Amino acid sequence: MTVVAEFKYKNGAVTASIELPISESISELSHHIIEEENLQPYEEDDLLNALEDFIQFKKENLNDKLSNEALNLTLCINNDEDIIRYWEKQFKEETVSYGDKSGSSDSELFSTAYHKLVHSGIALDTMLQVEQSYAHDVVNMIQQRDDQIEKLTKQQEESLNKKLETHQGSLSSEEINNLDQMYIEQQSFTLVKWISKIDTLKETQRREYRDWVMKLLEEHQRTITLQSSFSSPSSPAVIKTFPPITSVLPETDDSRVSSLEESFTIHLGSQMKQIYNIRILSANILDLCSIPYDTRYVLNL
User: Fold this and answer.
1) Of 67, 70, 97, 248, which residue is least crowded by CB atoms under 10 Å?
2) How many CB atoms neighbour CB 209 within 10 A?
3) Which uninterrupted H or E stretch holds 142?
4) Tens digits of per-residue pLDDT, 209-254?
5) Which helix (H) or strand (E) holds 13?
6) pTM above 0.85, yes or no
């Protein structure tokens, strides 16, 4: 909103257009008016006071006008229910804007699904194999990047040495700097290209792995539902069969050394019979953390 202010003094009057709400300080506006109108420095204080009073008066009038327009708009609504719905909507929007978003995010859903699958034990080995295959693919791509950059560096060095030998010192410093700048740009372009490829690979792996984990959890929950629907309290307890521990050990020359292992079953409780299978193993603890790489564990989604 633009308003016209008039400032009167002894020798005349000054007229200035002011944009409300004002975006600069009043003192700066006063200084600009004095510079434009060539006023005397002793008139600056009077002009500043007049501007402050004028802007304050116009701001109050503008606020009163906006308030009256809003009040008249509200009074035009004759139905009380419309007024209630209007303010209810405004209150909800204002409250929701300051509140946390409801519902779980994709990362939270994936974390929950991953936690359930890891602790269920049904696909831990497969999940670790898939993760290792993903890491292996990333490492291979990084190695390809390093090899290409190293090859490019050697080619640039050979090209520069060849040009120096051909011209035998006739190249100026500016020409050599231009060659260096061109080589640096080539390496930067190659590096950025490989960074983009690696990021794309990681994002694809992340998306595929998330979809696979969610599908695996759905199948696991569906299987549990089917088993619970066909089971009854009077049915005999089923003892879970554990796979041999050597299935997760890497197949190396050291794997020929047999580990000491003993399994037994215990019964707890006098009325509610609870059966537990316990296995005691004597082996190198680091072998249990080793996951052999197998190219068969690649997701085909």
Assistant:
1) 97
2) 18
3) helix 124-167
4) 999 999 988 888 888 777 666 554 444 443 333 343 333 334 444 4
5) strand 12-19
6) no
Nearest Cα to 110, choosing from 243, 221, 213? 213
The pLDDT score that the predictor gives to residue 233 is 47
184 Cβ partners below 8 Å, 6+ apart?
none
Q: Which residue has the tokens 């089923």?
A: 238
C-alpha distance from residue 107 to each of 123, 175, 206, 221, 262 (Å): 20, 53, 11, 20, 41
Could you give the 3-state DSSP secondary structure of residue 274? strand
The distance of Cα 31 from the centroid of its chain, to the nearest Å, equals: 49
pLDDT per position as a tens digit, 119-178: 877 778 888 888 888 999 999 999 999 999 999 999 988 888 888 888 776 778 888 888
What residues have CB less than 8 Å from 288, skipping those under 6 apart?
245, 248, 249
Mark 34-57 as b/e (b = at least 16 C-beta within 10 Å).
Answer: beeeebeeebeeebbebbeebbee
